[in-house]
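Malonyl-[acyl-carrier protein] O-methyltransferase
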Amino acid sequence: MGRETAFGLPDKRLVAASFSRAAASYDSVAQLQRDVGHSLLTRLPDGLQPSQWLDLGSGTGYFSRVLAQRFPNGVGVALDIAEGMLSHARVQGGATWHVAGDAEQLPLRDGSCGLIYSSLAVQWCSDFAAVLAEARRTLQPGGVLAFASLCAGTLHELRQSWRAVDGRVHVNRFRAFAEYQRLCADSGLEVLNLDNVPHVLHYADVRGLTHELKALGAHNLNPGRPDGLTGRARMLGLLQAYEAFRAPQGLPATYQVVYAVLRKPVEQGQS
């Protein structure tokens, strides 16, 4: 299967650099990431006790530390493409190993993992079929891939507000949920759970949202994004357009979260 390019996802070198710069500020504004990651943990199959687990796209290592507590007898590998994030995570501990690597080309042996856990990382991978193929290769028979990602419709309020201003690409693009369904169905992994759950955050103003996105390293990284600073007139237009979405709790920002749990089949004759 060829590489997916239709979504115009950002160059992963830009993603790595952006998240490396955000390492120090990330945890202070990562409530959505915490909520989603913990929700993903509740979806893991009962009785799972991996001898080795992988935190794929481990970021600051928050969930590496959670996984280390949950699976104290397992060897933990924290893998991220952003060196700045890994440097931050190493100091915090949690995983046995901290490895710089790419989800589309995992530097791990075949059949080495009982669990691959990935929360809000694989949306940056342009070739998600390769991510699934690598998961299948590196999982042990009966091993589990659990991931949370973002799909189309994420930050639709911000996207529509920008569209009213200038029609340029200001908001990161993500693949459709139907594409996740298709790719997972074709992966050779057994789909135990796959659903799309909206998470809505509220902000007092637009600047609170855009500041948080920058602090997370998740601001606009798309090809075709405007260069340079946003002019005062365009920013005022954005603020005015976004006000149309205001709710009693504040300005909403909707994240369409994909939760998935897949299992590598146990070949006939294996136990």
